[in-house]
């Protein structure tokens, strides 16, 4: 499925029918725990789980997690659940002085970004933070009087890589045989 809503609708049906449901970055947070939805498989993490990873990336880029503590930031997002992104920033000690939420998959205009820059500066933000998902949709703006940072998600498989790859191969390739 290609949306959170469709994934929500299909998760319970997939469990009832014992059909594996593969979804990419959508769905419920608890679906990442196989005990909750044993027939639902998030091939990558979802929006809600990504927030902490994104915040850690920014913190590392800025010199460590302690750099976020007390930092005045503007949080800008066009994701399904912006509260998770904002709560993650707060949990690391960032002070959100301006928040601008757009609908999921929003296509930003230059004027919206200029307005966000102006509002962020007026509220005393030291940086504007957004998600990588949103950053790819930001239009070019020549102004650089406040840093606009985005968070990249990196996934490292700690265990079960061979089983995962076999599972994907069984689903995607008809004649695959496990080793």
What does this structure look like?
The chain has 179 residues and is an alpha/beta fold. Helices cover 38% and strands 17% of the residues. It contains 6 helices and 6 strands. Helix 5 (132-135) links the parallel strand 5 and strand 6. The longest helix is centred in the N-terminal third of the chain and has 15 residues, at 47-61. The chain is elongated. The two termini are 29 Å apart. The relative contact order is 0.12.
Furnish the topology, listing elements before pairings:
Elements: H1 4-17, E1 21-24, E2 40-44, H2 47-61, E3 72-77, H3 82-91, E4 95-101, H4 110-122, E5 127-131, H5 132-135, E6 148-151, H6 161-172
Parallel strand pairs: 1-2, 3-4, 3-5, 5-6
Helix pairs in contact: 2-3
